[in-house]
Amino acid sequence: MKEIEQNLNGKGLRIGIVQSRFNEVVCEGLLAACRQQLVLSGVSENDITLATVPGALEIPLVLQAMAQSKKFDALVALGAVIRGDTYHFEVVSNESARGVGEVQLHSGVPVANAILTTDTDEQAEVRVNVKGAEAALVAIEMVHLLKALA
Length: 150
Known about the structure:
Blueprint: E1 15-20, H1 24-40, E2 48-53, H2 59-69, E3 74-82, H3 88-107, E4 111-118, H4 121-149
Parallel strand pairs: 1-2, 1-3, 3-4
């Protein structure tokens, strides 16, 4: 059996990040963890581009524009949707996830989805460092995996 090995070397990769400004403390934490992991994995600071948007529903549109620009090897979506007292949580969670998925399927550019969906602020804060770093690694790994399959 031929197996494609995991490659987490980010050297030479161009990564675009779209970050929501809603739930700012959580999103800034996700960004810090993601950025740190990208750099630790060999991605140059000069090859990381950040775009911020008002909320999670705006993330897919900017991801799409970045993917269509052909300037990025992979993209990362960072945001936090925290349950409130209304149905709005489900709408935002579902639609942002759908939009992120559609961008990568239609463009062929991998998108690491680190839009947290939690019941409480505390749950989101606990996940920030792990999910931000994981998103960076997912983006890098997927670039190499797709190249190996081409």
